[in-house]
């Protein structure tokens, strides 16, 4: 049902650095930057695998506390996401592991991005 979504970021370059590294293990990257002539001078860029689906919008204030979960193809990808995100400056919010209270194969990891958003990578398959 969701075609795309986005978040506001205060420091676009810091957010871009974080998401460039955190998204790589999930097979996603920055695919498009909207020309600033169409954004009132703000930086706006979209991440995805085949098309931009997760957008960063530069703003003066962010609204932390949002949660975004990204699909991982394997548990190893979840592990790699968590490691890359923490190395990129994210704060650990839940090490990779099973969360059986969701379902028996729910394997996920959580980090806070530079703006305080709770970012998750999840694999629903069995080991």
Report on this model:
- This protein is α/β, with parallel strands linked by helices and about 130 residues long.
- The chain has helices at about 10-25, 75-85; strands at about 5-10, 30-35, 45-50, 55-60, 65-70, 90-100, 105-110, 120-125.
- The longest helix is centred in the middle third of the chain and has 13 residues, at about 75-85.
Largest sheet: 4 strands, mixed
What is the straight-line distance between the termini?
28 Å
Return Rg in Å: 15 Å
Helix content: 10-25%
Q: What ranges have pLDDT less than 50 throughout 5 or more consecutive residues?
A: none
Query: What strand line-up does the widest sheet have?
Result: 1-4-3-2
Mean pLDDT: 94
Structure characteristics:
127 residues, alpha/beta, four-stranded mixed beta sheet, 2 helices, 8 strands, globular
Can you lay out the helices and strands and say which pair or pack?
Elements: E1 5-9, H1 12-23, E2 29-33, E3 44-48, E4 54-58, E5 67-71, H2 75-87, E6 91-98, E7 107-112, E8 118-123
Parallel strand pairs: 1-4, 5-8
Antiparallel strand pairs: 2-3, 3-4, 6-7, 7-8
What is the compact description of this entry?
20% of the residues lie in helices and 35% in strands.
